[in-house]
Each structure stands twice: as C-alpha cells, then as structure tokens.
DNA sequence: TTTCCTCTACTGGAAAACCAGTAATTTCAT
DNA sequence: ATGAAATTACTGGTTTTCCAGTAGAGGAAA
C-alpha cells in the first residue's frame, strides 16, 4: 500500500529533524520534503505533491494561517495539519476556517502524530486532546450579533474610530462616565472582556 | 422644470419640521415624504420614489450606515445625503463606502442644504466645509497593510483573541514587558494609538 | 567581520479601560 | 397612566494599555 506522502514545514531545522526521526519508523508515512519558510513551503509542495502537510503556524515570512489558506486553495486534495505550541482558541478556529484538517501540538507523541496523519489522510479531522478540550469550553461570545441600542451602535462606531472615552464624551456631549457605562454594556452584550475582542467581533458581524 | 423630489429621514419630528421649513421656499425642491425610523424610511422611499434622501446617521432601529447601503442597493439612482452632528472621519468614510453622495452637518444653512441637494442630484459629491477639512487632515493610517515580523503577527493574533499582555506573555513564555514592546511596535506600524483601531485595521487588511 | 534587524526586557510614568455596584431621569410601548 | 427599557451619571477601585526612552543579545545579510 502506498505510504502517505508528507511535507514538514517549520522554521526550526532541529524540530524538522526531530519530526523526521519520529516519523521514520512508520512504514505507512513517507516524508518527501521539508521547508523552513512559507516561500519554501509553496515550492516544496508544488515539487513533491504531498498528501499531508504538517504546517507550523508561526513562520518567519508569512502567517501560517495565510499559508494554510493558499495551500488548500491551490491543492484542494491536500490535508493540512496545523502544528504549534499555541493553545489559543482563536488560532484554532481561524486555521479551521482556512481549510486546515487538524491541529496538533508540538509536544505530541509519535503515536499521536501517526494517528493525526492517518485520520486526515482518510478525510477526517484530527485534534489533540488539549485542543478538543479548548474547543469544548463554553463559548464566551454569542453566536449571533447582539441587538444593540442606537446609542450603543453609535458608541461602537466611535470606539472603532479610535476615540477614547473622553473624546467620545466630547463628541456626543455627555459625561465620560456615561460612555464608560455604554462600553461596559457593549462588552457584556458581546460577551467579551476587552476592546480588542469587541472590535474583532463587531467587524465579523459587519457592525462597523 | 421638475423639482427635485426629497425624502427626509430623522427620528426627531422637530428637526424634520425645521428642515421642511428651511426647504419650503426652494421652488426647485419638493419634500415628498418624511420618516422617523429606518423601517419607515424604506417604506417612504418605496412609496414616493425620491431623487434625494437626507438621512440621519443615527436612527433608533438601525444604523444609518446600513440604511444607506440598503437604499442605494435597491434604488441605484437615489442620492443619499448623510445628515448628522458627528464630525467623525470614520463615519464619513464608511458612509461614502456604503454609497452616500454627500455629508452635511445638522447646523447647515438653507443655502448649504440647497447646494448639497442640487449637487448630488447632478451626480456630484457634496461635503460641508467642516467635513472637507476633516477629510483633508493627514491620514494617520497607512494606505497599505504594514509589513509585520513573525512575532508581531503572532502577538496581533493574540490581541485579537482578547488576551491581555500578561496572558500573552504566559502563552509565549516571555516577559509581559516584551509583549508591551511588541504592542507598541504594532501601534506604530499601523499608525494608530489604541487597540480598537489596530484590530479594526487588521480586520480590514485581513490580517486576522 | 560588520551592520542591521528582530527580539528581548527594563525604568518611570500617565492615561485609559475595565470592574461592580447603584440610581435617577427620560423615552417608548402598552 | 403605567411599566419597562434606555440613557444618563456617579462612587470607588483595580487592571491594563499607552508612552518615551534605553539597551543588550542573537541572527541574518552583505
């Protein structure tokens, strides 16, 4: 039976060497190429036509998220396994949105790597136990855009415009403390704890 | 010569009354309808088929920006003049992006209103002097997405994920002071002064 | 080897946001 | 007229971000 052709992408050669060492005993896996940058990844994938790519999210010349999107667009049958130390949910969800078939952590065992490669090659998804646990945590943000009052929409627009609470207060002829209350209400309605998430979600819901 | 058919949209009836009083002496303008909400605005525009709509940005039931987009999509020949007290550049640019033909402030004189209506009806753009001044101010943000280092991209992703500097430091195994330096460098590269603008621009540049 | 960039981290501080609670007034719908 | 929601604003506080400057170490390119 033909072994699964795998390309490894990580900017640390030592990690690439380690990965190859871990995968070598597996006779159903064949490491056909490695790359240490996004540019190299594109060339290596084009040259070797792998079935699976283990892709570090954090590359020197481009975001792994972007690389994932481009690889899965230009090679629709390619399966991308994200490889990272980061246990951050927004990275996971973004990688999945960009076409990744799985997500493994860099401390994965050889057995886990083998299972991940086999499963994604078979068309299934694969997540480390830690990542599954992360994804199963209660969703802090509402699935749908919250219903905002007119004043909240207005304040949200000004927050996105980069104004401070004091500047908004001046523009709207109210107290800065009033603006602070509106901000707090916005954070609560979006189920977030800071402005970064607020604006990111508002952009996603096209409220800006 | 047929007068320009105008619909007025503002939630304050007193302001609608005032606008009508200002526009009445103008024999080349005909106020064919008024509305005090977004829902009413759609119905009134459908019923009266105006040439120009004076549209308050801040409506009780929907953002004026959204109303502008929908009106200009469903009535391609309709000209929308934004009407507001807000002198906030991001609102202006967003209204223009959503198809508005002009932007006037609520303290405009009858002459200015007349000129605005005439100009947009003739297919030109119109901005109050104050708004032109606002638009002419040097652009604080770069026109193109800045070139980020890998660490900056990583930190940007975590900021958008809602993490605090302390949380990012723990996740990346560095000092919180290091994260603070990365944030500062991100703000500088994007030409902004706070996280809200940073994340909004990052979303616009599709860096998230 | 040298230079430049990236990443790291600090001092010292101010500004801003976030938090929890409380409450009066205004507005709007019934 | 009544009740609920929205808007307003405050106390008292902590946390977080933003600001300006400085600087060393490591890596990469010339």
How are the SSEs placed, and which strands pair?
Two copies of one chain form a homodimer.
Chain A: E1 4-9, H1 13-23, E2 29-35, H2 38-48, E3 52-56, H3 64-74, E4 79-84, H4 89-97, E5 102-105, H5 110-121, E6 126-127, H6 129-136, H7 150-160, H8 165-172, H9 176-190, H10 195-204
Chain A binds a DNA duplex (30 and 30 nucleotides) through helix 7 and helix 9.
Keywords (chains A, B): DNA-binding, Phosphoprotein, Transcription, Transcription regulation
Organism (chains A, B): Hymenobacter persicinus
GO molecular function (chains A, B): DNA binding
Helical stretch count of chain A? 10
CATH superfamily of the largest domain in chain A: Response regulator
Helix content of chain A: 40-55%
Which residues of chain A form runs of ≥5 with pLDDT under 50? none
In terms of DSSP E residues, the strand content of chain A is: 5-15%
Pfam family, one (chains A, B): Response_reg
Domain Response regulatory (chains A, B): 5-121
InterPro entries (chains A, B): CheY-like_superfamily, NreC/VraR/RcsB-like_REC, Sig_transdc_resp-reg_C-effctor, Sig_transdc_resp-reg_receiver, Tscrpt_reg_LuxR_C, WalR-like
GO molecular function, one term (chains A, B): DNA binding
């Amino acid at each position: 039976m033909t072994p699964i052709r795998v390309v490894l992408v990580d900017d640390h050669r030592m990690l690439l060497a380690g990965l190859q060492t871990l995968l070598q005993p597996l006779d159903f896996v064949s490491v056909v190429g490695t790359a240490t940058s996004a540019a190299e990844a594109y060339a290596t994938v084009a040259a070797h036509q792998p079935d699976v790519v283990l892709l570090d999210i954090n590359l020197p010349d481009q975001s792994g998220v972007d690389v994932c999107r481009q690889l899965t667009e230009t090679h629709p049958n390619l399966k991308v396994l994200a490889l990272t130390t980061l246990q951050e949910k927004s990275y996971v969800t973004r990688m999945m949105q960009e076409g990744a078939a799985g997500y493994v952590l860099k401390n994965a065992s050889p057995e886990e790597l083998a299972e991940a490669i086999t499963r994604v090659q078979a068309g299934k998804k694969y997540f480390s136990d830690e990542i599954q646990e992360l994804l199963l945590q209660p969703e802090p943000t509402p699935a749908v855009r919250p219903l905002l009052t007119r004043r909240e929409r207005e304040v949200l627009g000004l927050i996105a415009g980069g104004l401070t609470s004091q500047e908004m207060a001046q523009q709207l002829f109210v107290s800065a403390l009033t603006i602070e209350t509106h901000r707090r209400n916005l954070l609560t309605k979006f189920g977030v704890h800071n402005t970064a998430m607020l604006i990111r979600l508002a952009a996603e819901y096209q409220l800006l």
